Amino acid sequence: MFGGRRAERDAARGETECALRVVAGEHAGLGHRWRHGIARVSTGTIVFRPYLWQVRIVLPWTATVEVDVVSTEEDTDGSPWREVWSVNPTARRIVVQASGATLLWALPERQADWALGRTT
Predict the structure, then answer these.
(1) Torsion over CA of 67, 73, 76 and 77, rounded to 10 degrees?
(2) CA 30 to CA 76: how far, in whole Å?
(3) How is the chain split into domains, by residue range?
(4) pLDDT digits (tens, 9 = 90+) for 72-116
(5) What pLDDT, in 10s, does the model give residues 10-30?
């Protein structure tokens, strides 16, 4: 999920591979299970396009999920090893407060600071 050249190419386009899930509340297009995909990150917004069946394929007609970011903070509560089959345990996990929901955002370690800097 977190390749070097691919990550650089994505970052040049303002994108990063990631995974999102709802922790509390509700958000259209997301649920309580991890959804993997690619996100375009900009000030106050994450535009997420989920992969098709957890494979690195995003179809042109795939519905995007727009997250209006209110705030972000490092996840200190969760244990990444509990979800080792769902998300890479080396990923940085960020708690995202969005309007109406609390989300967990898993980012590649090498892109986490870059992505967080773009959302605030």
Answers:
(1) -40
(2) 22
(3) 4-119
(4) 999 877 666 667 778 888 889 999 999 899 999 999 988 889 888
(5) 656 678 899 999 999 999 999
Cβ burial, residue 101 (10 Å; 0-12/13-18/19+): middle
Q: Which is higher by pLDDT, 117 or 67?
A: 67
Phi, psi of 82 (to 5 degrees): -65, -25
Lowest mean pLDDT among 41-45, 47-51, 116-120: 116-120
* Tokens matching residue 47: 């535009």
Element (H, E) at 13: none
DSSP codes of every residue in 48-110: EEE-BTTBS---TTPPPEEEEEEEEEE--S--GGGGTTTS-TTSEEEEEEETTEEEEEEE-HH
Burial of 47 (0-12, 13-18, 19+ CB in 10 A): middle
Does the domain made of 4-119 have the CATH classification 2.30.30.30?
no
